[in-house]
Amino acid sequence: MAKFHSFSFPYLCLAFLVCFILIHASPAAIDEPTGLVDKVCNQTSNYTFCVEALYSDRRTPDADSYTLAFIAFGVAYANANSARDYIAELLKNTSGQDYHSRLEICGHDYLRAVSKLEEAYNDLNSETFFGLAKLAGVASKASDHCQDAFRGISSPPLGSRNGDLKRLCEIGAVIAKLFTGSS
Ligand SMILES: *[C@@H]1O[C@H](CO)[C@@H](O)[C@H](O)[C@H]1NC(C)=O
Ligand SMILES: *[C@@H]1O[C@H](CO)[C@@H](O)[C@H](O)[C@H]1NC(C)=O
Ligand SMILES: *[C@@H]1O[C@H](CO)[C@@H](O)[C@H](O)[C@H]1NC(C)=O
């Protein structure tokens, strides 16, 4: 009996250690998306992307739909703004005429996206919800337009940025519909 105990105690320790490692090594710190996040992300084209994007903000675990709208449009805005800065950098560095003019198209697209997302943010601030989905749609179209501008180019300079903005806008549009009731 004593032998059994002296064997089982380290065994138990090891079991706990393994559990501890498994829990703490699991990807990201997203324990379990909230019901609201689950509901929103389930209506988007990429659930994982949606959950990761929303959980990039530490308010998400406690967010109601209003706060979640701020988070979604905030992330989309930050993304578009950073892409716009990046395009401006690329424009400075690029000498090829064809490439330059494609980049300029994207520069305009992202300018439009940033301004629409800014408008959405202001709408949220004044609790004006009816235009949100449309603004997200316009910003999303801007990313499509930029993507088209580099059609046929083997390694488009914006990489995944267009796709990211498109999906972020999609999240914003889904949340916007929580307020306007259409779905
Ligand atoms: C998620 O979406 C699927 C279909 O798109 C639907 O059948 C399911 O009920 C949804 N689940 C939740 C929790 O909303
Ligand atoms: C969905 O998003 C995740 C996380 O960003 C990404 O790893 C995955 O490739 C995406 N899936 C599709 C089908 O685009
Ligand atoms: C632009 O060129 C500078 C100097 O060559 C370089 O440091 C910078 O990383 C480049 N920017 C981009 C976005 O390629």
TrEMBL record:
Keywords: Disulfide bond, Signal. The keyword Disulfide bond applies. Belongs to the PMEI family. It comes from Salix koriyanagi. Residues 1-25 form the signal peptide. PANTHER family: OS01G0111000 PROTEIN (PTHR35357:SF8), OS02G0537100 PROTEIN (PTHR35357). This is Pectinesterase inhibitor domain-containing protein. Residues 32-175 form the Pectinesterase inhibitor domain.
